[in-house]
Amino acid sequence: MKKGISKKPLDSASVCGHEDPAAVRELLTKVGDKWSIFLILSLAQLPGGRARFSELEKAIPGISQRMLTVTVRSLERDGLLTRELFAEVPLRVEYELTALGRSLLPPMWGLVDWVKENWQQVKESRTEFDAR
């Protein structure tokens, strides 16, 4: 190490650039969860940007009814989507992204694009690693 230059230890606030690293971790865990990503991207692509529960269930491969319920409630609680009830028989409920939820789309599409561009390289690395 050069004289006069001290190497400062890395702390969690400097890693994420936020004074509350726990908040960053919590939200990244929530919006980075596979069901949240698929739900947000599905809502963005469905006609009118709105969907009924059954439409979301069909649009998200492999999600259970329980997991979809948990995910929409969690995203609604965080202000990322809204749930609108229509007083009809039978009762109709539709979900839609809020402005805050829509603001997640560019980074999410960026991640999806990154996966599309790099998936083959990741698969090759896995095969190489597993062969050792």
UniProtKB/TrEMBL annotation:
The keyword Cell membrane does not apply. InterPro entries: HTH_HxlR, WH-like_DNA-bd_sf, WH_DNA-bd_sf. Pfam families: HxlR. Residues 16-123 form the HTH hxlR-type domain. Keywords: DNA-binding, Transcription, Transcription regulation. This is Transcriptional regulator. It comes from the Bacteria. The keyword DNA-binding applies. PROSITE patterns: HTH_HXLR. It comes from Silvibacterium dinghuense. One of its GO terms (molecular function) is DNA binding.
